[in-house]
Amino acid sequence: MPMRETPAEPGRIYRKIPYGPLLDVFMLDMRSYRGPNGNAAPGPYGPASHLLGPKQLAWLKRELKASRATWKVIAADLPLGLQSYEGVGMGDGPPRGRELEIADLLAFIKRSGIHNTLWITADVHYTAAHYYDPNRAQFQDFEPFWEFVSGPIHAGTWWPSELDDTFGPRVAFQKASSRERGENLPPSFGLQFFGHVAIDGASEMMTVTLKDVGDVALWSVDLAPKRDTRPGSS
């Protein structure tokens, strides 16, 4: 993705990339500001449980609230509901550790009436579509949303990670290696993946397609936008 130097913070990665009235992409940095998350950072939110960090989180809330694009795509390093003590998911149960920031963000999106958000993530070396449903979740103060996972396309493929129930994810589709086939599989196995997103200019319908390295469509979904009723919206 394009990078623009920020004089106030040289090397800053997180930024908004606008694509006209239909799409704003919010690129996040989940590496540079995170704390150690030791023992899943028990207790209230604090430096040990930082993932985005307070400054980036405040920026994201502000920019999401200001956005009048039909679709708000959040491009993140890490999936939200996969169990990993190096990532977001801390296992089943209420939010703790790095999940606290995500819970705060999801609740803010709901309270602010921000519609048509979805997440695009990578990191786990396979492809998947996850639907997050508060009716399935331990933490329920959010609106349902999709998360699409693909990549990295230049790395070996692994088996799927376990989901936790904190934010109620459901696997709509996934393709990966298996424990029987092994880990870190090379491209000769045909298990490298990428995604394609298209928005119809007339209907504003978004189509997300997960593909393999041979450009074969594996799975697709059409998403109809919800009308933005906030002041200043068209």
What's a concise summary of this model?
This protein has 234 residues and is an alpha/beta fold.
Looking at the overall shape, the CATH architecture is: 4-Layer Sandwich
The top-level CATH class is: Alpha Beta
CATH superfamily: Alkaline phosphatase D (PhoD)
Which ranges are low-confidence, i.e. pLDDT below 50, for 5 or more consecutive residues? none
Q: Assign an overall shape.
A: globular
- Could you tell me the CATH topology label: Purple Acid Phosphatase, chain A, domain 2
Number of helices: 2
Q: Kindly report how far apart the N and C termini lie.
A: 28 Å
Mean pLDDT: 92
Tell me the structural class. Answer: alpha/beta
The structural domain count equals: 1
SSE order, one letter for each helix or strand: EEHEHEEEEEEE
Q: What's the arrangement of strands in the largest beta sheet?
A: 1-2-3-4-6-5-7
Helix content: 10-25%
What is the strand content?
15-25%
* Strands, count: 10
Query: What's the story with the biggest beta sheet?
Result: 7 strands, mixed
Gyration radius over CA: 18 Å
How do the helices and strands line up, and which of them pair or pack?
Elements lengths: L14 E4 L4 E5 L26 H13 L4 E5 L23 H13 L5 E5 L5 E6 L12 E5 L19 E7 L17 E7 L6 E7 L4 E7 L11
Parallel strand pairs: 2-3, 3-4, 4-6
Antiparallel strand pairs: 1-2, 5-6, 5-7, 8-9, 9-10
Helix pairs in contact: 1-2
